[in-house]
User: Fold these one by one.
Assistant:
Number 1:
Amino acid sequence: MTHTYVLGECLRGQYKLECGSSDAEIKVITGSCTSSSSTPTIQTNVCHSLSSNTRVNVPAGTCSGHVIEDPHFVGLQGERYDVMGEPEKWFNIVSDKDFMMNAFYHQNTNHLRGRTIMQQVAIAVSGGGGMSHTILANTTDLYIDNNEAMVVGSKISLTSSSVDKYNNNQTSSSSSSSSSSTLLAVSRISKVQWEIRTSSYVVILHHQHVHDQPYWDMDVSLLDKTRTPHGLLGQTAHHVHNHDDGAGDDGERRRPLKGKQGQGEIEGTYKDYEVVGPYGVDFIFNKFLIGSN
């Protein structure tokens, strides 16, 4: 008997597994699929991307979040909210002691009411002692340390001491030294998709278009759940809502008030996350290059 399974999204740090079969009843019991006659094979440590059919291999218990379209956020614990920001400005998405990610908001001209898209994404990582490597995903491609774009199927692994010289297939010789550990690994999965991996994060960037406008969707996985990052998305790793969603005077549970700028989900206001440029850290909740979290 053949059984099929469908793997759902990460919700509140746990993998939600749903199973189905056309010829037998299958029940979900503590994360495994069972039937009266057999047990199907289940791939447990995989999350489906919300913006593509890609499956991203991440450790069990990892929290994953997403930012898609104009822009809709799914937090690292499953929160759903929007942060439209302001067009032609940079905002911080994730800020951690050795990892940061900013996005450039651009006016979505196909919609009214100020809707925006993330037209550029900038990432910086640190191996200690300052910024070690940078990634810029602009309107057309993705570049590491301002070097040439990667070809499809290539992978680059870098240490904090890697020289800025690549051949689109292998890392520089200093990166492959047995005495050095990989700080940053970047893979070009397809023409429109890249994986950025550090010891604590996995980011999948998807290059999309709405009509003739390019933009980026992102899937972000936090591998180290002891981290306490900040940023419009990062803060949801250890989220404390800044609204009261308890019972009202009449004893009824009230749905928290939400708007298009993260109200009810983010600390402060969206304006508190604006930075001066792609690698800007000049916002009040910055954690990049600031000691331990």
Number 2:
Amino acid sequence: MAARIRRLSKTVLTFSRYSVVHLCSRNERGVSNLANLSETHEMLRKTCRDFADNELAPIASQLDKEHKYPKKQIKQMGDLGLMCVDIAESDGGTGLDYFAYALAMDEISRGCASTGCIMSVNNSLYLGPIKNFGNSKQKEQFLKPFLHGDRVGCFALSEPGNGSDAGAASTVAKSDGDYWILNGSKAWITNSAQAEAVVVFATTDKSKKHKGISAFLVPMPIEGLTVGKLEDKLGIRATSTATLTFEDCRIPKQNLLGQEGQGFKIAMVWSCYVFILSTTFAHCVLVLFKTLSKHWMLDV
């Protein structure tokens, strides 16, 4: 058992370092420079580490046991600019790079994995698609109010029968005059109980297969959208995870994100982006596990 854990540890660490290399490459920064951070990155890391040590680590266990959403801490993180790390300053965000985001995720998740997950979903899966594909009106309504921890969003791709297959959306969106009507279910949606908006993927033209999937911005709560029972998970329990059910949910035509049929592209881009950043999250959980293992006297 211990040998298997050691092999897993090496795999996760190797992949995490690989991901950080590519995140760094956006700014021509190499692994050799990780020990010599810029003043901005070092200040960010120290701020996040202090916050994690003082505000998150002492309550992380309680949050997890009680399934308690860290509302106060999320607002504090919003005030620090951590809920919109790579959103441009012109849009009201912090305006830092992906490397800064990875550093922040690493430190916050080290203090509380659940809080890091909430931060990641809002930054990457919710704000990311709107930042890159939203128009000015959509950014005013669905991006700017979600930058500072007062509100969080979520991302609805996975389905009960299709998992996270971005090209197999059973949820459908039908055009009806000035509205889209959504019907279907999305499963395992993180932040669903607290979210005040969601990026939803639905099929608009079955004949085009994956090219007939589109993305939509749906405010929450809204008539025709039901949040199901919260999942009783094994870990990261301070995050809410539930099914979203759409039953003749009507949204304005202008809530289409990007172009009709562009949903598969949006889903793939941001799912891959989050997968890379999730290795940073996995690395910090591994560090936590190795720390705890010393107390459990495990050979890792």
